[in-house]
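dude i think i finally got it to work??
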Amino acid sequence: MVVRIVFWGTSFIGSCGAWIPGRNDSLLGVAVLASFIFLIDYGEQHRLRDYLLHLFFFTMALFTKETAVVAVVVFGSYIILLAKEKFSSPQLRLLAAGWAIAGVMWFALRLLAVSSSLSTATNAWTDALLAMTQYAGKMIFPFNLSVMPTIKNTGLGWGIAAIFLILAVLWLGKDRRRGYLYFGGLWIVLFLLPPMLFGYNGIYYEHRCYVPLIGLFFIFPEAQYVIQGRPALKKIVMAGGLLVLAIFAAISFRQCDYFSGRMAFWKNAVKTSPNFFFSHVGLAHAYIDARNYDYAHDHILQAYVIAHGIPMVHGIYGVLFQERQEWAKAREAFGTAVKLDPHNDEAWKDLGAIHIEMKNYREAITCLCKALAINPEDADTYRNLGLLYSKTGEHEKALSAYRKAVEISTGKYSLRLPVFKSI
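look at this
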C-alpha cells in the first residue's frame, strides 16, 4: 500500500508529464515494466508469445532511451535471484540471443542516426554518490524539487532520511524474502547509474527517478508483516498513506505550474538553483525575448559573477547588445565567446552576424568560413556566405557557396536560385 502511494504520488511529478523532455522517462517506464512482466510470464508459462512480447517491449525501451541498456542486467538479476528454476538452459540461451539481437540492431541504427559513439564523459565519483543520495530522497520524499536541479543547490537531508528508511525496511525484512530485497536494490541502483555517471552538465533531472522508483515495489512490501495481525496499526498506516498521497499529489500539481511557460520555468530555475549560471542565462534569454532588457542585464551580471569564464555567458551578453543594436559591445562580447571556445560554430556565426550589421563584410566572411570549418554541413551558413560574396563582388565564390548550400539542403533553397543568376 505504502509503495503504491509513493509511486502514484510521485509519478505525477511535473517533469514526467508536463515537460516534453521528461516524458521519455515515463515512456521508458512503461516499456521496461511491460517487458519485465512478459519476462515473468515467459518464465511461468513458457509461451512463445510472451517471449516475443518481452523482446518487443525491450526493443521499444532501447529506442526510447539509452538507459534501457541496463535492463539486460536487471532482467538477468531477476532470473538469478528470483526465478532461476523457472527457466531452462535453452530458454536462457534464447533470451540471451534475443537481447543481443535487439541490442545490436539498436546500436547499429543509433550509429546511423547520430554518427557518434556512446557518451564517455563521466562525472566524478563523489558527484555520483551525492547524486545517488539526492535521487533517493526525491524518490521517497518529493520535496525541494527544481526544474534545474544541481548537486550544489539540492540539500542532502531528505536523501539521507530516505536511505535510512530503506535500510530500516531492509532490516525489518531481513528474515523475509531476501531475493526481493536484493533485486529491488539492484533495480534502483542500476537504473540510477546512467544519470549519476552521465549527468548533463551537472544537472540531475528529477524525471530520471521514474524508472528506478519501480524498485521500491520489491523492497517495501517485505516490511508489511509488521502490521499483520494488528488492525489498529493497519488503520493508522492506511490513514497516513492517504494523507501522504494527498500531500504528494498537491506537490506534483504545483510542480506542473513551473512547466506552464518559459518564464515560469526559468524563474523556478533561478529560485531553486540560484548558484547555477545556466539558470540565470536561461531567465535572461527569456527576458530578452520579452524585451525586458533591464531584468535581462541583471541576471546576465549574476551569471557573469558565477561563471565569467563560460563562453555562454558572454554569448548571452552579445545577444542582449545585439537586441539593443549596440553593435560594438555585441562584437566585443561575441569576440570573447569565440576566444574562450574557438570550436563553437554558433559563436562564430553570431560574431559574423554582428560584422554584417556593421558592414564589415570581409570580417563576416572570415567568421562564417571558420564556422563552416567546424560544421561543414550547415546549408544556411553557405547561403549567407554566398550573399556576402555577392556583396563584395566575388560572384564565382558566391555561386560556389550557393551551390554547396543547395547540395547540402537537397533543393531547400532552389527557389532562390534566380537571385544568384542575376549576379
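The two ends are 76 Å apart (CA to CA).
im so relieved honestly
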